[in-house]
Amino acid sequence: MRTLRLVPLLLLALVAFGLAAGASPSSAAAALCDPGTWSIDGTDAAQTGCVPASLGHYVAETGATSDRACPAGAFADVMGLVGCTPAPPGRIVPREGALLSEPCLPGSYQPGSGRSSCRPAPAGAFVASSGATEPTPCPAGSFTGVEGATACVPAPAGTYIVDTGRSTATDCAPGTVSDAQGATSCTPAPAGKYAPLAGQSSADDCPAGSYSDEPGAAACILAPPGRFVLSAGSASATACPAGTYSPTSGSTACTPAPSGSYVPDAGAAAPAACPPGTFSAATRAVACTAAPAGSFVGTTGAAAATPCPAGSYGPVAGSSLCFPTPAGSANPVPGATVPVACKPGTYAAATASLACRAASRNHFVASVGATTQAKCAKGFTQPKTGQRKCVKVKKKAKKAKASRR
């Protein structure tokens, strides 16, 4: 053990002795260049000795005769390196022998280290600044449909995007709209309006004659028969008022009930004809008028009552026919409400008489409402017509007869 410890000391003594005797340094054994350095022959015996690896290069082993360029994805920003530095996440080295790394540009990113290229931001995401390690998903209400985007695009009016990271916007469904950019949901079309198509930015007014009574309508409802919608944008239909009607769907106005008909209640689809015994002279009638006494209405749908003709009468209102005057009476003019009884001296043998007949000569009618005349009794006479009684026949005096003899 003691002998081994003396060996290094002997070597040092020999070296010192050689130098003292005038030996030159070049005659000593040359040393290999350390990692990080190199020389033409790989030793420090060269005139320049070992030199450090240059910028962008490295020397990993001993005794190197040249330095090597850093590969793509790594760099050397100082001299004398034994290895290159990998590009950190968010940065790249696209070429060999690089001194520095460079950041990924906006629209691209790189999550790994030692990379030579950046990744484009995928559709549905963006990278706004340089040196990004991850893309950012587009927020709700925005999208991007291309790779490498630096910003997202707001969903256009008429569309929406409900979640993040979308590459397309979705059209609003029929019945809904979005009136501004960047919507995350669509709004139901309000009552009175509708949205018939997908992707509408605003709702349309329901046209006159139709309506929508609830939000979210994709189509309007036609006003049913008996109802109408006067103006556009209505949320309900209005019942036709009494006296009017609407026979079809989609009406913008109601029709007045014509003469001879009536509409008693609101919301009618058709007028009702006035029944026999009644009439309506004007339009918009809500009720028919009873034929007054002395007149009649014999058909449905009459616009006026007809006076009872002469020889007849109408005792009550609302009659569909007139009654003939009974025997013993007469009505000489139209519109009578009661039969007129024949006066004494007159009679009417038939019904529906226009006038009573005067009793003939030698006849009489003593009572009111007679249907026949009576012949004067024997010994009675009546030289006039239309009399109520007969008179006795006058006898000649006997004295006057005797004197004549």
> CA-to-CA gap between the ends?
234 Å
Poorly predicted regions are: 1-27
**Looking at the structure, what is the overall shape?**
rod-shaped
Give me the Rg, rounded. Answer: 65 Å
Strand content: 15-25%
Work out the helicity level.
Answer: under 10%
Mean pLDDT over the residues = 91
Largest sheet: 2 strands, antiparallel
Structural class: mainly beta
Q: How many individual helices? A: 2
How would you sum up this structure, described in words?
The structure is a single chain. By secondary structure, the chain is mostly beta strands. The chain has a domain at 343-392. It contains 2 helices and 42 strands. The strands form 21 sheets. A two-stranded antiparallel ribbon has the order 1-2. It is rod-shaped, with a radius of gyration of 65 Å.
Describe what is shown at a glance.
This protein has 405 residues and is mainly beta.
Note the topology.
Blueprint: H1 2-20, E1 37-38, E2 51-52, E3 57-58, E4 68-69, E5 74-75, E6 85-86, E7 91-92, E8 102-103, E9 108-109, E10 119-120, E11 125-126, E12 136-137, E13 142-143, E14 153-154, E15 159-160, E16 170-171, E17 176-177, E18 187-188, E19 193-194, E20 204-205, E21 210-211, E22 221-222, E23 227-228, E24 238-239, E25 244-245, E26 255-256, E27 261-262, E28 272-273, E29 278-279, E30 289-290, E31 295-296, E32 306-307, E33 312-313, E34 323-324, E35 329-330, E36 340-341, E37 346-347, E38 357-358, E39 363-364, E40 374-375, E41 380-381, E42 391-392, H2 398-404
